[in-house]
Amino acid sequence: MEITKHIWLMLFIIWGLPLTMYRSKFRKIVYDTNSWTINIKPLFFKEIKALFGNMYPENKQYLKFRNFYRFYLAIYFLLFIAYTLFKDPS
């Protein structure tokens, strides 16, 4: 059904809009910088390690935002799984 396709698209857009802002904030914490250029640099290993590990156990800001970012990405992943399971086969 055409409306279902539009609903999924709207859900992905609405949920995905703040992703760039959240990723930028997380990368700035992980790489300890305030430079905007961190958003365009392809530095992924430390970021992935910080997301799934505990790089800065004493940094409360990092811990709080890492957990929030994990939750945000988990919802994004569940949204994608729901889309693949319930999409219209036509």
How many helices?
4
Pattern of helices and strands: HHHH
The computed structural class is mainly alpha
Instruction: Look at the structure and give the mean pLDDT.
Output: 89
- Shape summary: elongated
Estimated radius of gyration: 16 Å
Q: What ranges have pLDDT less than 50 throughout 5 or more consecutive residues?
A: none
Give the strand tally.
0
Termini separation comes to 8 Å
Largest sheet entry: none
- Helix content bin: 55-70%
Strand content: under 5%
Please outline the helices and strands.
Layout: H1 2-16, H2 19-30, H3 45-52, H4 60-86
Helix pairs in contact: 1-4, 2-4
Describe the structure.
The longest helix has 27 residues. Helices cover 69% and strands 0% of the residues. The protein has one domain. It contains 4 helices and no strands. With 90 residues, it is mostly helical.
Give a short summary of the structure.
With 90 residues, the protein is mainly α. 69% of the residues lie in helices and 0% in strands. It has one domain (2-86).
